[in-house]
Amino acid sequence: WDHRCVPVTPLSTPDRSAYLLAARGEPVPHTPVWFMRQAGRALPEYRAVREGTTMLESCMRPDLVVEITLQPVRRYGVDAAIFFSDIVTPLQFAGYDIEIKPGIGPVSADPIRDAVGVAAVRPVTAADVPFTTEAIQQLVSELGGTPLIGFAGAPFTLASYLVEGGPSKDFAKTKAMMHGQPDLWHALADRLADVAIAFLSVQVEAGASAIQLFDSWAGGLSPRDYERFVQPHSAKVFEAMKEYGVPRVHFGVNTGELLGLMSEAGADVVGVDWRVPLDEAVRRITAAGGAPKPVQGNLDPALLFTGWETIEPEIDRILAEGKAAPGHIFNLGHGVPPNADPEVLRRITQYVQTKSAHVPA
Ligand code: CP3
């Protein structure tokens, strides 16, 4: 595909931004770039404003959410902002007892094992989260032409924290529930789909330009289990969000074997980690006969810790492979590590934007 040139004019709304054009598979002024988990501990200004405030408290304060969301936009000049929150915060807003432990992740003292546990999961409504609506409205006005991405955790990845009680490598308890108590599993996943729909809807209604559904840990599943136990629930989320008309992005780590199924769940844009080259990802997405879709990715975050002489040819390779798709949003293959050097991320952003720009003859 020829990611063709369009004139560069200052934008007051995100509609013609490089990110949204690429997500819609339209010609772009340059390949847009942003980084998953771009707000966070890699930034000294983040560590400064977060000092003495828990993650949950921060997410309930519009002033902090606005500031933290804007920090990477200012520092890196990325083409999109992502709303500062976490995949488990909607559960917390709804009064569910799950904690985010620094350096560990979401932890639940009372993991879900039965119908009583499932019944405790209820979605938030806009009335529960006035601070979210306020923060997003303010962000959209401050961001001008830069789009704001709303996001939520997909049912499987959220369920993995609730059933395991914390981060897991093998998801043994979650898989035991799927296979041993399928009715309970489907009831839980259905409720978590409603949580995602509710939180995404609040974000889009407040002005978010796109949504990304994170199924970060889906790569732990076989295609067969994914298709039976997970895809219908993620599909419910994408189907419910269709009416808003915003691009719907789907991402998970280690999902090389699942790219076709995750695309079919209803994604408009498929996120790819570093294990599969983008041109091969397009082949997998279209293997079952589906239309080619824009892709997002996929620089290995580990390469941030090598030298520029390693990073630059990798970016060139990824930009070339991205041409196999009708649109390419440059990103890392997973989130920014907390010890990444912000200067490297700034250089990558500028390099992608400059290198991919069509210079008028
Ligand atoms: O900049 C952004 O990307 C927006 C903010 C964001 C956070 N979490 C903030 C956060 C987003 C999009 C997430 C999503 C998220 N949370 C995912 C999906 C993306 C992915 O990385 O796969 C997952 C699996 C989680 C669960 C989670 N929450 C983890 C694994 C952690 C890290 C634990 C740690 O401390 O290393 C968290 C906590 C968290 N979420 C932090 C931030 C900035 C760190 C907490 C802190 O700074 O005190």
From TrEMBL:
Annotated metabolic or biological route of this protein: Porphyrin-containing compound metabolism; protoporphyrin-IX biosynthesis; coproporphyrinogen-III from 5-aminolevulinate: step 4/4
Cellular compartments per GO CC: cytosol
Enzyme class: lyase
Protein keywords: Cytoplasm, Decarboxylase, Lyase, Porphyrin biosynthesis
Keyword Ion transport belongs to the record: no
EC number(s) per entry: 4.1.1.37
Any GO molecular function: uroporphyrinogen decarboxylase activity
UniProt-listed InterPro entries: UROD/MetE-like_sf, Uroporphyrinogen_deCO2ase_HemE, Uroporphyrinogen_deCOase
A single GO BP: protoporphyrinogen IX biosynthetic process
Keyword Hydrolase: no
Annotated site location: Transition state stabilizer: D86
Binding of substrate, residues: R37, Q38, A39, G40, R41, D86, Y161, S216, H334
Compartments, record wording: Cytoplasm
UniProt cross-references to PROSITE patterns, sorted A to Z: UROD_1, UROD_2
Reaction(s) catalysed by this chain's protein: uroporphyrinogen III + 4 H(+) = coproporphyrinogen III + 4 CO2
Domain Uroporphyrinogen decarboxylase (URO-D), first and last residues per copy: 32-41, 149-165
Gene3D superfamilies in the record: 3.20.20.210
Function field: Catalyzes the decarboxylation of four acetate groups of uroporphyrinogen-III to yield coproporphyrinogen-III.
Subunit structure: Homodimer.
Protein family membership: Belongs to the uroporphyrinogen decarboxylase family.
NCBIfam families for this protein: hemE (TIGR01464)
HAMAP family, A to Z: URO_D
Protein name (Swiss-Prot/TrEMBL): Uroporphyrinogen decarboxylase
Organism, as annotated: Kribbella soli
Record lineage: Bacteria, Bacillati, Actinomycetota, Actinomycetes, Propionibacteriales
Gene: hemE
